[in-house]
TrEMBL record:
This is B box-type domain-containing protein. It comes from the Eukaryota. The keyword Cytoplasm does not apply. Keywords: Metal-binding, Zinc, Zinc-finger. GO terms for molecular function: zinc ion binding. Residues 16-61 form the B box-type domain. Gene3D superfamilies: Classic Zinc Finger, TolB, C-terminal domain. It comes from Dreissena polymorpha (Zebra mussel).
Length: 598
């Protein structure tokens, strides 16, 4: 993916520019002609036409002409670009122009430019570090590019697998029909056939759409990695050129400033590589892709349907099961609770009673919990046993999935308001990037690269890099009017709970209010979740209830759990397609409730 724009030229080949109108990296300077040439043009110029001319390579840049552009780049202040760098603040290890000093460093004690020339070993060490990190960036870029191709192949393989599975189900279905519907009129048989085929077609389309959404999210992350690697490599290459020029021209001031710029940039790149190399490493990526493939099979319903057909030969049971699967992938299919269990999530390092404000289930069935009281994010396995945890700086309020192995956590308390990204790798939690907010963050949701963040009184849209796009909704009539938020799978509906006003609000993509739902059985609505099929689940904190609401946010479909079922001040809810269960987190206590549903 590297392009010509990835190359840096302070000295370009004159011949290539003049005759071919292209920029080519100059490696020689002809003293007689006073021009720079690339390797190919230099061979023609020096070896065949003007062999008596003296040429100087880049190891002898002291004989090259002074580049005013190059010198200006070295001396330019990155904060005040119209000013030249003149000093170094040793208190802050920062290069400064006169304006930097007057605005930010007047009270600093050590603001000077050391007149001592950089020693050759120090400069050489910087050269080596620049080259090492440039190679690492290229390796990571190549890994990301390879990963993007793997994702595309993965989707094509999944598409083929789904088609084959569907064909096998149709074949089995035809046998069942022939065996059990012999005495039913042909017209009725045709109706049943049409119902089955349309249902399977719908399930297949949903499956492939889920595959595309899941893999696209991961692909976006890899594309960002490629772009960041190219940008960092571009900047390192430019600094390599600056340092090479300044050190070879015996200019003490230029060399010191160029060296300082190199050190600062190298630190940035090392930090980026430390945070992202493991996450984007090819081997880890391959595991993620494989996990995604397994997830797609489970979500599709085709795998479960195939198994059920082995056990059920009665056509009525089969059709009932088939009809149920069709509804499962619809947003208004009503869950039926089949059983419940309770699981302890307290770990030895907890100092307070657990308060589970958010739950997120990963494609492989692992469960992430936000424990507000203990300022932790906990990882549970499929049996709901805690296997790992991470401490966060403030109280964790909400969690949303970004990729099959990465989540974003909304953290807020007093003056700390931030979004922390966490990666799950081989059963362990790893901190990733983070960005800060200028307002509280009580809820967070993700859809197709957009982050939706609620502040308590407003709903905002952000990019994954932390840039605010817009404010979608605001209600400052009281506190806690915009608490948790969720988004439909297609992104066309947004849902928010208003704890103070006892309301569930449904918004359009642009923030327009579409519906307001209130119910005596929904007192103090807080926890909120939308399943991959679009079903809406909401907790009543004061009423001790978990409800299912229709996708339009206008009416209740079912009361799934109440205080009689053990629900006490529910704060969070999430559906797991892996176990076909609804998980409920509570305000106080060390347990989560798991309701098995169909």
């Amino acid at each position: 993916m590297a392009t010509q724009s990835d190359r840096v030229f302070f000295f370009g080949c004159v011949s290539c520019k003049k005759n071919k109108n292209i920029e080519e990296y100059a490696v020689y300077y002809c003293e007689k002609c006073q021009q720079c040439f690339c390797r190919q043009c230099c061979e023609l110029h020096h070896d065949y036409l003007f062999s008596e001319h003296v040429k100087h390579d880049r190891l002898n840049m002291r004989n090259w002409p002074v580049s005013k552009e190059l010198e200006a780049v070295i001396l330019m202040c990155e904060i005040h670009t119209h000013k030249k760098l003149e000093t170094i603040c040793k208190d802050h290890s920062q290069l400064c122009c006169s304006k930097c000093v007057s605005l930010s460093h007047r009270k600093c004690k050590k603001v000077t430019l050391n007149s001592a020339k950089k020693q050759a070993p120090e400069v050489q060490e910087l050269f080596e570090k620049l080259l090492i990190n440039m190679r690492k960036l290229r390796k990571l870029q190549s890994c990301c590019e390879s990963g993007i191709q793997d994702l595309k192949s993965s989707y094509q393989g999944q598409e083929l697998m789904v088609h084959k599975m569907n064909d096998k189900i149709k074949s089995t279905m035809a046998k069942i029909v022939r065996r059990t519907l012999k005495k039913i009129p042909k017209v009725e048989q045709n109706k049943i056939h049409e119902l089955m085929h349309s249902t399977l077609f719908h399930i297949e389309n949903i499956t492939l759409n889920e595959a595309k959404i899941t893999l696209s999210s991961l692909e976006d992350s890899l594309k960002t990695g490629v772009e960041t690697c190219i940008r960092h490599h571009h900047e390192l290459k430019a600094l390599h050129e600056l340092l090479l020029y300044s050190s070879d021209n015996n200019n003490k001031k230029l060399c010191i400033i160029a060296s300082r710029k190199c050190i600062d940039k190298i630190q940035q790149v090392v930090s980026y590589l430390d945070e992202n190399s493991v996450k984007l490493e090819c081997s880890v990526l391959q595991q993620t892709i494989q996990g995604t493939e397994q997830y797609i099979v489970r979500l599709s319903g085709l795998g479960r349907l195939k198994e059920s057909m082995k056990a059920h030969t009665d056509i009525e049971q089969y059709l009932s099961k088939l009809s149920g699967l069709m509804r499962v992938v619809g947003p208004n299919y009503v869950f039926t609770v089949q059983g419940k269990s309770r699981h302890t999530v307290r770990i030895p390092s907890d100092s307070e009673s657990c308060s589970i404000t958010a739950i997120c289930v990963l494609p492989d069935g692992q469960v992430l919990l936000a424990d507000r009281n203990n300022k932790k994010v906990k990882l549970l396995n499929q049996q709901y046993h805690a296997v790992s945890h991470l401490d966060v700086r403030a109280k964790s309020q909400d969690i949303c999935q970004i990729t099959p192995s990465e989540v974003a956590v909304a953290v807020t308390y007093r003056n700390i308001h931030e979004v922390q990204f966490i990666t799950v790798i081989q059963g362990q939690l790893t901190l990733g990037k983070m960005f800060q907010l200028q307002h509280g963050c009580t809820g967070i949701a993700h859809n197709h690269g957009d982050l939706y963040i609620s502040s308590g009184t407003a709903l905002y849209k952000f990019t994954l890099s932390g840039k605010q796009v817009c404010r979608l909704y605001k209600d400052t009539s009281a506190d806690d009017t915009v608490d948790k938020c969720a988004v439909s799978p297609t992104g066309d509906r947004l849902y928010i709970t208003s704890y103070r006003q006892n309301k569930l609000l449904t918004l359009a993509r642009d923030g327009t209010l579409l519906a307001t739902y209130t119910d005596p059985a929904l007192d103090g609505p807080y926890g909120l979740h939308v399943t991959p099929a679009g079903q809406v689940l909401v907790c009543g904190w004061g009423s001790n209830t978990v409800l299912q609401v229709d996708s339009e946010g206008k009416s209740k479909l079912a009361t799934l759990a109440t205080q009689e079922d053990g629900v006490s001040y529910p704060w969070s809810v999430c559906y797991s397609s892996t176990t076909s269960s609804i998980i409920v987190g509570q305000w106080w206590g060390d347990n989560i409730l798991v309701f098995r549903v169909e």
